[in-house]
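Reading a protein record of the kind used here takes little practice once its layout is understood. Each number in the token line that follows is a code from a learned vocabulary of backbone shapes. One such record is shown here in full, so that the layout can be seen directly:
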Amino acid sequence: MRILMVEDDERLCEAVACRLKREGFTVDVCHDGDDALRWIRQQAHDLVLLDRMLPTVSGTGVLRRMREEGITVPVLLVTALDAVADRVAGLDAGADDYLTKPFDPEELLARIRAMARRPRRWESAGLLQAGDVRYDAARRVLTGGAGDCTLSRREGDLLETLLRNPGQTLPRGVLLSRVWGPDAPVEDGNLDNYIYFLRRRLRQVGSALEIRTVRGLGYRLEQDHV
């Protein structure tokens, strides 16, 4: 799971990010609302930990803008404001959950696990099925009618993103951010190479799924002959 942590207290941000990384999460950090919106618009994260009191744009301002733009990534709002009215305002702005400071790291981890169990478009763990294949994301094993094969990490991340969005055209930028991370120094042609690898993997397991090229936009996973 890739988490974006938005927190203007840099010491707290560093401490929490280190703990999350020890638990196996991939974590990106930023410290103000403008940067948060830039990262969030790349749609590369499974979860956003969002401080309410931020420079440039407040946490609730970030929430309202991203929801208005149709960005549905789950958001855990983290703040020192603990009045009922504050919690209601945060949830009404688009937060999925609310955690007050100071918080115990174990409670934060428990809330993250609970949110990850909810069915979400970008949820990153578990057994996926689309068409005639199954993909075990934890083991990175793809299974079809002709057998199974193990994917590399990048192959798995790319296939997982496609499987969670069958029939949808995913822009190249979204796929690059999702698989290599936001702002990663990666050549655009790398995506085409991994699409080629995945097409071979699907044929290897005897699948009728097809990764279609949508010229000028990106790629779409669909059943062959649809």
User: Anything to note?
Assistant: Confidence is low (pLDDT under 50) at residues 120-125.
